Amino acid sequence: MNEKIAKIFFEIASYIQMKEDGFRVVAYRKAGNNIRSLKEDIKDIYERGGLKDLEKIPGIGKNIAKKIEEYLKTGKIKTLQRLKKEIPVKLNEISAIEGMGSKKAKVLYDKLGIRNIKELERAVKAHKIAPLFGFGEKTEKNILQGIEFLKKDKGRSLLGQIMPTVEEILARLGSLKEVKEISVAGSVRRMKETVGDVDILATSNKPEKVMDFFVSLPGVVKVWGKGKTKSSVRMEQGFDVDLRIVKPESFGSALQYFTGSKEHNIATRKIAISKGLKLNEYGVFKKDKAIAGRTEQGVYRAIGLPYIPPEMREDAGEITAKLPQIIGYDDIRGDLHCHSSWNGGEHSIKEMAEKAIEMGYEYIGISDHTKFLRIEKGLNEKQLLRQRKEINKLNQELWIKNHGFRILQGCEANIMPDGSLDIKDNVLSQLDYVIAGVHSAMKLPKNKMTQRIITAMKNPNVNIISHPTGRLLLKREEYEIDFDKILRAAKEYNVFLEINSSPDRLDLKDTNIRRTKEAGLKMVISTDSHHKGQLEIIKFGIAQARRGWAEKKDIINTNSAKRLLSFFK
DNA sequence: GCCGTTTTCGGCCCGACTGTTTTCAGTCG
Does any domain span residue A530? Predict the structure, then answer.
């Protein structure tokens, strides 16, 4: 519910912004952000304490509290409906294009009557945009590029966005006594960074009952089809879920078949054929006799292959190669990229550390933004040194010592366009480690961008490059860099590349992870948490590392703090 | 629209970058 209500307030803010740039816009955005990061469902808060408790949430006053109540009671908010009626522009759609916001959308609507992407695309192609005041040739080109980019990923969602819903569906179905076995399949099981639809597989002696339950799950907005073996629904977040019920003796082979990838399946079927066998979703067959199918392990064994983890099933050599022992989901011993309340985040260093201890970590690295990033309340030299003192003090406290835990201090310094950092070296050298990252001027030409990052790597204080290629999934391309040159420099200057676990980054991506590993370099898996709950997204970074065939030894934060720090020497 | 050991009114919201302009608005982080 929180995410849904937060989105509505962001939407209201954007519609208001079409007309005016005022503090109301900021207020609605702030409310949206605060609702999004609530630990408790806002519905529960309301049901327990009514309007009064809603108003206790920072950024939420009388007015917005009332709107939340209105939504919880009626399922809509009149203000938003009125705004949409007044300006019938699909703002969500248009502002999904990089570089497009409320103001530009307003001009396009006023001058050309453009209401959605389709009309916008037509206008761009007819060159009606460039002559408008404030627009031009470049804008036209950028819009077209943005639209193409959106189309390419149309219908796909971020894995991290849908995962909570998937896990909930699995839990609900799994709790039915009629369900024997259950598993997610498809690209979700392969932990692909974006997914089209969700496939779930189950066995049951009462399929009708399970299907009845499935199509009436909370959040289902449309039932595409419902049968005894397959049902398909649309969830309110905009993705589809298929549930298939198969016979127990075929569960393994069906799981193998529906997990894919398609290319991996073609390759495995060829292997089967070469051994005089037949592999399909019902099992592995010798002549007409099933010799496997009950379990996935059995299927791979029957065709003479080792068990291949789902994350590796992309026909990227996994069939023929000697499989590495890829990193496990429990191998990480600490998180090095975490922001604290010093950056305006919700949680103090202590709270972040407590969460890390709860997760079984041995250390946490606090790496707050530095001064160039004003909006993130970036720290200056003085503040970093003050933070150093606070961390030293915390490390002396019993609750930390008793856990053998340690807080490390880093920072995430900004790499300026010339490759310099925004913090003086004599301060950087007093931290336990330094992350450097690009947060501005992302459209530099390839050689300049490459040189910029390499210059930063040359700084002897720099240990890690955060989100090295700058991509934002479904939104922004990587910036142009010569990745091989970056790898060579990383080796020469002993710098580690980050695998950023944020579901919209996952940067490095799987193929770059593999290249990095093959170049003989180690990496670090981090969350870039701005909130203690986000420490849990490490699983998406680990998944990406597994997709890139990284082993435990390739990831430096699978080591103890002591060993880890020795890598930075 | 929210907020208050200065306050119930008057602050809050910064800077770089881009693509437009010829001094700046819009967007993004």
Answer: yes
